[in-house]
Amino acid sequence: MGMKRYRAEDLHRFAKAVLTSLKVPAGDAETVSDSLIRSDLAGIDSHGISRLTIYAKRVREGRIAARPDIRIARSGAVLRVDGGNGLGQVVAMRSLEAAVSVAGQSGLAGIAIRRSNHYGAASYFCEWACRKNLALMALTNSPPGIPPHGGKRAFLGTNPVAFGFPTRKGPPLIVDMSSSVVARGKIILAARRGQPIPPGWAVDREGRETTDPAEALRGAVLPVGGVKGYALAAAVEVLSGVLSGAAFGPHVRNLYEEGHAAADVGHFFILMDISRWMPIDTYFRRMEQFLRELKAVPRAEGAEEILYPGEGRERRIRRRLREGIPLSREVVSDLEELGRSCDVPFPGPIGREGKQG
Hints:
The chain is of the alpha+beta class. It has helices spanning 8-21, 26-41, 52-61, 88-106, 123-131, 184-193, 213-218, 227-242, 280-295, 311-323, 329-342, and strands at residues 4-6, 71-75, 78-82, 108-116, 134-140, 161-165, 173-177, 202-203, 209-210, 220-221, 265-273, 325-327.
């Protein structure tokens, strides 16, 4: 595949420079760049810097607003947000920042967002909340990717669900999962790399199983757990799309399809101030007991260790900070071309031990 490794800070600097060259404010460019590189570090390559090219293209076209007019209306513990068609990470983070004081007053804040765009990996926002000793549930809809049970045409998005719970020792407990067998972004990445996808991931337009990523993108991704994943995706669609006032189902526009309509992606968050539910020290003691007992469960044959959700992620982050982020030749070529168009040089690769190549 011709994978080379790049320093996280170099890729972050490049992404931020590209976005600011497109008139995205520096603070917003920082948020988006941090989200992308954090995803790469965590091994979520489908939501990493490979997304920068399409973000930049849509901002340049005006299909995504570089400087969105984000409007937040409060009613009790509920925030209703008009994202102004901004970059999804910017809209989501601005909304969450506004929700911190609401959660502090009420114990939780419910946030329903419309007129947004792809917001990267939801785990990024969970990590942000955990650093503030807050818990977060994050949902978003997405362009059609999953067929309804018994159907052969995509209707629901791959609609991920994420949770973040802070810990006093060790990494936070982070759950971030798609309603589908696999995130659609991984199929997009496979198509760009010219690689087949595993059986059981997707079907073509006729509902037949396929390993061709191009056919899969024209068809549908299969829900995780069959009818259970379909039901989960439908619930996420109601909260993120119907309840927020955003587009839902086939009305959510695909960022990768040409055209001038805004995506109108919807997000839904529940932000919890743990200290309003119980003393924070009590919470941390109970979490430590829970995780200690979880990891002490007798291991199955062949299992070396029991990890709680978020531990493996933290280890991948440390490893990639040390060894660099691997990027395929195709992704690098796209980013180099993007850099030239923005007059921002793409950084060079590093060696396996982190030395400049």
